Amino acid sequence: MIRFKKLPEDIRERLDSVEEYFKQHPQIIFAYLFGGLTRKTPSPFSDVDIAIYVVDTDKVRYLDIYMELTNLLETDEIDLVLLNKAPISLAGRILLSRKVIVDKEPFLRHCYESVTLRKFFDFRIKEGDILKRRYGIG
To answer: Do 95 and 116 contact (CB within 8 A), yes or no?
Structure first.
């Protein structure tokens, strides 16, 4: 959700530069756009939601990637998720609304998606039961 100011009008065109950056980045295996910008008409409160899967979480420089994204997109309204460390509740929801930005190893991406979605669907059943018992919703 937007915190400070609206996204630039040409944000979709600027996403092309993000794709090129990710293709050249040696640590990034695949990346997704998710959330409001994946819809045809994003809300005025949309931000840029990006998820990345990297080779080695110990060697990736998360803040450098984030800063480069803010420079390329000319906005601070970016949420960057490291899929390698994301909880199943978040990773599954990302996969449900994803748009692939870059995919250097399709087999690895398909394996990740398959395993993560199976775990997420199992989790959702338990989550629904917990919410129903605790709050009467779900």
So the answer is: yes
pTM of the model: 0.87
Residues whose CB falls within 8 Å of the CB of residue 38, separated by 6 or more in sequence, listed in order: 97, 98, 99
pLDDT-based confidence at residue 43 (cuts at 50, 70, 90): confident
**Beta partners for 78?**
48
Q: How far is CA 113 from CA 4, 16, 52, 100, 108, in A?
A: 33, 23, 13, 12, 9
pLDDT at 39 over 60: yes
Secondary structure of residue 125 in the 3-state scheme: helix
How large is the average pLDDT for residues 92-97?
Answer: 96
DSSP state of 1: -
Place of tokens 């915190």: 3
User: Residue 138: what pLDDT?
Assistant: 57
Measured CA to CA, the distance from residue 57 to residue 81 in angstroms comes to 12
